[in-house]
């Protein structure tokens, strides 16, 4: 049956000409008597129709519906109970027009999302839908059509973001479009969150998973994040005196009407009587912005989206939230994951702690655990080391904690690349300068171990067998050659860093990289005298690599340069011009004799000497 209908449709498309559509549209716009042309034109607004037929029908239908939209009843409104209103021909006619308009919107969305439609047609259809959004609610923003449009784009199976790019470039500059975009995205995120919970429950009960629902969920989440990341910031649009509105002329009355219609639960009598100011609009935008982001962050984000969100959260999200502390659960949960996720969550968590009074007791323990060799080759290492330096800047930091970080970094300097060693020297330099109480780690010689760290000595002390051991244990006599620092300990308190020394830093004096061996000499100064020393900017070394070190060495000016050099590699020890010196003359032998001398020089000389000695003996006898 479907194949028969498709054949009939193709035959109808072939038999219909473009001039026929123009005639139908002209008759529809000229007289109400030709209203039956409306379903005929609607028929050609479909993905299977030729693009020129879709455009011609769309022009006529848009011109027909645009002046009638303010008088049409709402799609969700129920018919009146009175028989008089139901029997009214005008009411029946307007209700019929509303149903046809809904069919037009649905057909336009199908054309918009069809892979058969080209980009030009999609852009024209999107502009038509946004015109209906502009005037479809009595001159105010038609949020129902816009939510339907946005939901269809998000739920489409095509990964192409062309429609989202057009929407962002053309319409996200209008403040009311952004406002209702946040509302729609919040609704979509809540629906996806509830769907994910129900899918997890079904998975637990059934025990099977097809894999396709998770892939479609990831695609939806990526599209929502793409939209949210392309919406301009709130301050850039609201706090300036002149702002643009899509659904009105831009005056304050239209703004207040649009925002009040969708946000009645937050309105008061004062706002009903007075025009909304820019500050009140910014406040409402922040509320919608906050709700949209909090709903989105509750979703099971894919790993790539998760990293991208954490990388931009401290700049693009936290400053524009109505209450940034609401992100504490998301950031602390991300910080506890470990690895790269923890490194990227550190920026947002640090802002909440320093600027908004968030308390996180295990912050330094988690930060201490992130100091591993792999962090010196991570993508976001530059920002991480700057944050580590900022987190250890407070003078109220306990001495054991500063010592633990200094010792941990010193131990890492043995196994990291030269660029990482430069960062470690800068961090240790700043720690020693900020916390004079840990300078004993530099002045202490040997391994720093005590008798209490020796299990056998400790047992003899407990049994009272060795009095010498007891006395030495009381004085904490050091045991040379043993470092009491526990590098595997994740708790800085139990690492025994205060009883150790920074002997690893001393080994960097003999580092194979000249930049490291030169830079470590800065620690020989007395860092306790703050007036004579300055802190080192960690940012100058945090993004270094082998390439940057090599480039720095190439740019250095060499004081002792060679005064003579050969343009052409020499082929002999002395050239022809240098063959004669004052008082000396070098003559060239023939090649044959020269080869004989080279081959049998020693042998011939020994034979000649032996024969001469024999002659002398014969003559003497």
From TrEMBL:
Signal peptide residues on this chain, from the entry's feature table: none
InterPro entries documented for this protein: CCAAT-binding_factor (IPR005612), Noc4 (IPR027193)
Stretches assigned to the CCAAT-binding factor domain: 342-520
Region spans: Disordered: 462-493
Pfam annotation, one family: CBF
Entry superkingdom: Eukaryota
PANTHER family cross-referenced by the UniProt entry: NUCLEOLAR COMPLEX PROTEIN 4, NUCLEOLAR COMPLEX PROTEIN 4 HOMOLOG
UniProt similarity note: Belongs to the CBF/MAK21 family.
Name this polypeptide is given: Nucleolar complex protein 4 homolog B
Organism: Prunus mume (Japanese apricot)
